[in-house]
Structures are given as C-alpha cells and as structure tokens.
Amino acid sequence: MRSTNSTGTSPPRADRTSAGTESAPAEHSADESTPDRVSSIVAAMSLRQKVGQLFVTVAHGATADAPHSGNREDYGVDTPAEVVREFQLGGVIHFSWTDSLREPRQIAELSNDLQRTALDSGAGIPLTIATDQEQGAVTRIGEPATALPGNMALGAARDPHRAAQAADVTGRELRAMGITQNFAPVGDVNVDPENPVIGVRSFGSDPELVAGLTRAQVRGHQDFGSAANTVSATVKHFPGHGDTSVDSHTALPVVDHTAEQWRRLDAPPFRAAIAAGTDSVMTAHIKFPRLDDSGEPATLSREILTGMLREELGFAGVVVTDSLRMEGVLELHPNEPVSVLAFRAGADQLLMPRDLGSAIESVVAAVRSGELSERDVDRSVTRILRMKERRGLLDDPLVDPNAVGRVVGSERNAHRARRITDSTVTVLRNDSGLLPLRERPRDVLVTGWGTDAVAELARLVRKRGPRAEALPTGSSPDSGTVERVTSLAQQHEAVIVLTNAAWKESNSAQRDLLRSLGGTRTPVIAVAVRDPYDAAYAEQVRTWLATYSHRTVSLESLARVLFGEVAPVGKLPVPVPDPLRPGKDRYPFGHGVTW
C-alpha cells in the first residue's frame, strides 16, 4: 500500500500538461487538448458514479484502513477508504479535527491510499484532495510545513511577486503531501472593519490591491511548475464576504450592495482570478438582496452563480460551495435537500453536506424525476475532470512519500518565507523615535496577549542580547493583572506588549493594560498581532506596529525590525478608523513609517 505507482483501473493516460504560463478565461477550453479522454470517461459512467463526482467531504482518520468513530457516526462505515468506496466520491477534504493532518509523510500516505481506493472502485477516477491552507489565521497544516503570515500581511507588503511566491511555496508543499486543491486565496475585499469571519484573511480594503494579489496567488498556485507540482486555486467567497458583520458559519449574513457597488467593490478580485485562469471559485452563504431578490443565499442563487459568475464574469471552471453544513445555507432550508438547490443554482462541487448519503440520493432522484438535467450533471462532471486533468491527476495522482521531507519545510522555502514576511511588518507610529532599538535596553518586559507568542518574542529578544521577562496576560486581563504588569514594567528599561483584537468591546481589558503601561515612564512598544485596528485605542502609547499575524515567522520579522536588522516597508492595507471621530481614520490606507 506504499508504492508510488498507481494500481487498479485508471482512466486512459495522456501526457501531462504544464501550467507554466499565465492562464486566461479561454484557458479552460485550451486545456481541453484531449477532449476525447474526458468525454469518453463521462460517457462510460453511470448516473450514480457521476453524482458521486460532485461531492467532496471529510473522511475521519490518519490512515485509510483504520476504523474511526467519526466515519461510523457520519456515514455508517468505519474507515476513510470505505467512505470513498461506498459513496464513490469525487473528492475529500482534510482537517486537523478529522485526524487527517498529523504530519507531512502521514498526509502523503493517507492521500495515496485514498487515491488507490478511488482508482480501484467506482469509475476508477482519482480524487481531488483539498484543504484550506490560507496561511496566517487559517492554517490547517502546521510545522514542519512552511509558515507564512497570511493575506493581510501580504497586502501590507504590496508586492504581487511575493504574494505569488507565497502561494508557490504553499502549493508545492501541499502537492508533495498529495493535496491537489487549496481552498485559497480569499478574494474578499474587507470593507467592514468589524467583519467577524474575514478580517486578516483578506488582502485589504482596496479592490485594486486585492485583485492584484488574488491574481498573483492564483498564478503562484497553478502556474509555477509542472502539473504534478501545482494545486488548483479556489478563490473565495463569491460574490464577496468582505462587508458583513455576521459569521455565515452561524447565521445568514445580508450584504446590501447594489449591482454597481458589487461591480466596483466585490467583483474585481474574482474578475482578476478568472482572467488568471483559476481552476475553481467557492461560493458564499450570504444574501445579496439587490443582486437577487429571491431571498436565497448566493450558494443557492441561480441569478448569482449562473447569471453573474458564469455569464457576466465568464467563468468556465469549477464552482464549489462553501460547506453545506454551515447555518448560513441551512437557515432557510433546514429540511430541504440543499445539495439539489446548490446544483440547480450552478454549483459543481458540493462540499460537506450534513447527511452525505441522503444528499447523493436526493441529487440522483432529482435527475431521475426530471427536476435536474443529466446533461447538466455531465457538464459539471466534465468541469471537475478537466480540473483534475490540468493538475495531472488523470495521469498519476500519487506522490512519493520519501520525497516529502525534501519539499515540506525545506530551508529554501523557509528562506523565502522570511524574505516575504520581512516586507509585511508595518510601523504605524514611532513618535518618540524609539525604534529601531540600536541602543539596546538591558532588560525588556514582554507581555500582553498570547502565552506562546509572548514567550517566543521574549526568546527572540534574549537572542539579541537584552534580558527579557515573559509575562502573558491573556485577552482579558483583570484589574489585578493590569496593576501587577504596570508595576513590573517600571522595573524594566522597555516594554513590548502584544494585542489581539483589542478593538473589540469584549477585549477592552487589553486597552486598559495599554493605557496603564502608557502612563509609566518606561518606553512602551505595542504590537497588534492580528487586526491593525487596535492601534487607534491607546493614544498614550507612542510606538505602534502591526504584524497581522502571531505566527513565529511574523514574530521573527518583528524582532528584526525592532532591532534594526531590516527596515520596515509595510503599508496599511486597510484604514484604521478613529473610534472618537466617526467617519475619520486614525491611520489612513497606505500609512507606514520607515527609517
């Protein structure tokens, strides 16, 4: 079960196609250089096999043949291999909570064995194997995989080449582990600073900036190597999740953009991604009443998925739904077959339905009754197989587990990640000229949010000579903790305090800590390690930076900036509103201090 050569019945082979040049919308047709192969596969499939290709879901367990209670609970079978075989799936998606992502070699072996199962069953078609490796706030696979700081940090860097490099690093490492489709990049424009689900997952608030970096990441995922070394990009969440104050995991958000506003604010990143040849686009469980007055979320809206995405923007690739277990898509249809509704709207891949068996049978029944057209099923399956063909899966879907260690977390990738991340740190305020710390303090107190982040930054400070004491306070320090940290700060020559979403009212105790520290004579350096909006809430602190991430790679770049080893070049990719002056910005879009 560990050979790197495929076994069983596989589709007819053809030469791999290289993705080494930038794609265009017509590329989806140009890539169909061997249409007879895909057409003949589809023509030979039963209806049940074709419907299985539409579904992508989880399979619990670290190895393909080991029983896991999650599979029994969800599907009535024991092992991941049985899930693939029983339901003749088109794809699987890996998460840490499904126990699928323990370490790189295990992931590669699991992926291979699931591919062998697919090749040996049903129509003998390889799987798409997906995950959400956005980097930054949403990172499914941790170390030793190369860490990067995420989209908003790349927005601060303002460099499409580095954004493409980041996607290339991520994509090559995913493919080495057998993952073929990344549900990234996020193309949402973060219009609402209080967005609870996008935030730093977005490149920024400017449609042109987000469009350029989205285009770059599509190319980095798909175009910087042979088919066997690339992954399908999936730009999300169409038609745009950036102007919401509700999380679609738990409720159904409403965006009141007019069609003109949508074309100006939300559409540019998706338009750019389609021009770059993105293999797939993910839908959003959001209502846009001015785009479709039916009341349906976009995932279930034919007006949005077919009328706008397919017809207006000209997208010919694979449309994948966001998870069909989320409340945003179930709120209006708790007892209806949402998979049928999503397919009828224009989706191709149906992601993680709540009851997989019933979902598959509902689509089969809808075709047999004439509610859905089998011709439309054939069209969607053809798109899915074309995507698999472009990534070389119809030639050989397996990877070499022995090569994983040479690719995943390589020193070359780590070096690239450091260079990229060094360009993301943003200095918002250096009023007292404290930075860089060329005259190094003898002792530093590192405090604030995040036990691990505070400890890691203290280690990085000590590495540069000063003594450093680590005293994490959590996200809501009580008054006693604030008093104790403030007293201790006066015994040090400098304080570095980390904040995370201090702008939220629920985290207002972080602001109390900042203000208390700012009232001492000890120099204070505040660092927003997630949203930059924190910097508007403590005028007493005269030195502010933003990293947009608390990953180790970001803290390392932060330390290099603090101690003058690199100059800060990051520019705010979003404006920071002034909470005391509604409608005004404390720090405008594009602001950044350097030396």
Give short descriptive properties of this protein.
single chain, 595 residues, alpha/beta, 6-stranded mixed sheet, globular, disordered N terminus
Short recap of the structure:
This protein has 595 residues and is α/β, with parallel strands linked by helices. Helix content is 38%, strand content 12%.
Protein described:
It is a single chain. The protein is α/β, with parallel strands linked by helices and 595 residues long. It is 38% helix and 12% strand. The protein has helices at residues 27-30, 35-44, 47-53, 69-75, 80-87, 104-119, 151-157, 160-176, 207-222, 259-275, 302-312, 327-330, 338-345, 356-369, 374-390, 404-407, 411-422, 451-463, 479-489, 508-518, 552-562, and strands spanning 55-57, 91-93, 128-131, 133-135, 138-139, 181-182, 232-238, 280-283, 318-320, 350-351, 426-430, 443-448, 467-472, 494-499, 524-528, 543-546, 576-577, 585-587. Helix 6 (104-119) links the parallel strand 2 and strand 3. Helix 2 crosses helix 15 (374-390), helix 5 (80-87) packs parallel to helix 6 (104-119) and helix 8 runs parallel beside helix 9. It is globular. The N and C termini lie far apart (57 Å). The model is unreliable at 1-34 (pLDDT under 50).
